[in-house]
Amino acid sequence: MVRIREDLPLRMDEASRALVSGAGPAVYGEVELDIEGWLKRLSKQLSKSAIRQLHQACELVASRAFNAAHTRIEQRSNAYHAGVGMADILTHLRVDEETLVAAVLFRSVRENLITLEEVGTVFGPDIQALIRSTLAMGGLSELIERNRRLEDHFENNQREHLSGIYKMLISVTEDVRVVLIKLAERTFAVRELANASRERQERVAREILTIYAPLAHRLGIAQLKWELEDIAFRFLSPERYKEIATLLSEKRLEREQYIQNMTKRLQDALAEQGIKAEVTGRVKHIYSIYRKMKSKQLSFDQLYDIRALRVLVDSVPECYHALGVAHQLWRHIPDQFDDYITNPKANGYRSLHTAVLAENKSLEVQIRTMDMHNEAELGVCAHFNYKEGTKAGKKNGDIVFDHKLHSLRSVLENYQENKNKQDGKKSKNQDDPDFDEGEIDPLNDWGEFEKIYVFSRDGDIKELPKDATVLDFAYHVHTQVGNHCYAARVNQRFVPLTYKLKTGEQVEILTKKDRDPSRDWLVNSLGYIKTAHARDKLRYWFRQQDRSKNLEIGRETLVKELARLAIHPKSIDLADYAKAFNVKSGDDILIGLVTGDISLHQLMNQINKQMQPDEDTPELVLKPTLNARASRTLSQHGILIDGLDNVELHVAQCCQPVHGEPIAGYITQHRGVSIHNLNCPEYGRLIVQDADRAVEAGWEMQPTSGQVVQIVIEAYDRRGLLKDLTAVIFSDQINIQQVNTITESNGIANMKLQIEVKGLAQLSRLLARLEQQPGIMSARRLVVGMK
């Protein structure tokens, strides 16, 4: 059975020195820690190998802290004291040895006395992962603590914002042990606040009372919850704390005598009924008293549960039998009964609560089984199973299960499920040690866990799906913020609008009234937006533009894209593609480009398809040629020449046509047929000179190899520019044949690249992605003689 310090509210100052004892081998400052004695006590519940590992961790931390104290000018490290203190807190929660070792090492890793690499090498990857995740949670905790705006949420119990804080903290891990280590760290920290500045005391205490105590409550860990609440309350409201503590102390002897008498009466009555039970007095905690007095507007003397008994029995039927005994012994106070066995609390708490009049004084009686009591004190920790072969597991004859840790997510999902069952079922009496009608429930709505949590410029926490971009964030804040967004800063640094946010980052959106959304934002492959919310807002904005304006914008969008690809607009008749997009006309395609119903990528793909012969149309088949070079060229480029066999082909370098563009051939004197873009100026000049050399040509198939094109990029020169651009190109599996860069005196870099692409659609997508990169002014295809 779990034993706790029942007198903690009245002996808070002594509670923080539970480990301090006589002389020992390890020393920190003026405090000596009896590590050998501590480990000897733990040997009753841990295996010999676990004790050896804990001892190794303590020796390593002690050694590093000692060396730091002699080599550093600044204040000596408290890592050893804190690490052992955290581990001692966790021993009472029956956690496994990995958690204890991680707790001992955590502070030393945080202070850079020990590296994570060392931890992994010496103690293994599991302990390393626990410390890494706890550090991540601690980093977020520090961000929250430094955020002045959040103090308003703490003081005013703003449910929405506080819920975001909890979710942000939990997002760094799926392992409940990480949260337990962090709870132990905060418990140790709040115990050590006595000598801190008043400002520091209040800030940490507010964080404890608003974040970590409720988190301990939701995990069902009453031991930590009560201690965190009472110590934090003492620092936040010292006068009220002292007032209630004084009220508890004034009639302590009288109350203790009363409890002793009632305990004996109930114990004897239960024994007469053949019920084996343990009856003890129960101390009400100071913050719980304050909360109930405030929420119910009661005076201290009006509270039912200042005097309370706890009854522990062996089985559930005996709980109800013991309840009947209590009600026979004393008169039951009407409406003061709760059955949390039949209807457990949201955090899994089970017990029977009743209030009676015993010798004309109200007395609360709680009745539960031994297992229920352990669960009430340890919460989720009560469900940890010892590893197979541990001394405690063998000694107690427990059934040894595989050591599978419960993830915090499943704990919280179970909490939400239980919470939903309890909605609308609260009884008239909520006089239990955890309930407060005015208490917020910030862990009430967890939702999906594939989320990120970021700070706004003003310090509010926003929840977004994983991989959400800064533009998604802008639309999450407000539709108009998204519509007029032109730039963004993350952690004070400018980032592209496609930047994927990470938990804990602070985001600032820059807007201008004359800026409107870009149609590129709707192109999936460009990665501007992730959320359906942002996409819907964008499409709505574009649909609200009048038809004539949409036609104008759509035409400008298409012309710009064709110019970037070096395609003459007259070579494209949109009416030819209306059927493919299930619209009536080419104008509908232009409007679809604006509203996002049709993407440029889709249109370029259709252009490619239209240039290929239809399956039902007889194809011009070239006979086998004796010219190996001509055959290879034909296969590579997939081109049909009308009326010519055994011909050698080459792509004209003046225009370098790409699969999908209209093409034509010109018979040269020595190099066979040169293939030109139908709108190539050079081709136009040649056929004026000799029209008989012109031959019809078309695309027979998708080329089996890449087609060489030249692109030109204009950008502000900066460190890493070429590296960033080549990374974008390689990510689309495009080969780079040649790169030439010229930087002008004004800092503008002109880069010419010769690359291999598979067609217009791929080239279009690449140019659009290149223009997204920071500092890029333009990216376009380069064709000699074509603008």
UniProtKB/TrEMBL annotation:
Pfam family membership, one: RelA_SpoT
SUPFAM superfamilies: ACT-like, HD-domain/PDEase-like, Nucleotidyltransferase, TGS-like
Domain ACT: 710-784
Signal sequence, renumbered to the chain: none
Gene Ontology cellular component list: plasma membrane
Compositional bias segments (type: Acidic residues): 432-442
Keywords: Hydrolase
Region described as Disordered: spans on this chain: 416-443
Recorded metabolic or biological pathway in which this protein acts: Purine metabolism
All copies of domain TGS, residue ranges: 448-511
One BP term from GO: guanosine tetraphosphate metabolic process
InterPro entries named in the record: ACT-like_dom_sf, ACT_dom, Beta-grasp_dom_sf, NT_sf, RelA/Spo_fam, RelA_SpoT, TGS, TGS-like
Domain of life: Bacteria
Biased composition (Basic and acidic residues): 416-431
Gene Ontology molecular function terms on file: GTP diphosphokinase activity; guanosine-3',5'-bis(diphosphate) 3'-diphosphatase activity
Family: Belongs to the relA/spoT family.
Function, in words: In eubacteria ppGpp (guanosine 3'-diphosphate 5'-diphosphate) is a mediator of the stringent response that coordinates a variety of cellular activities in response to changes in nutritional abundance.
Protein name listed in UniProt: GTP pyrophosphokinase
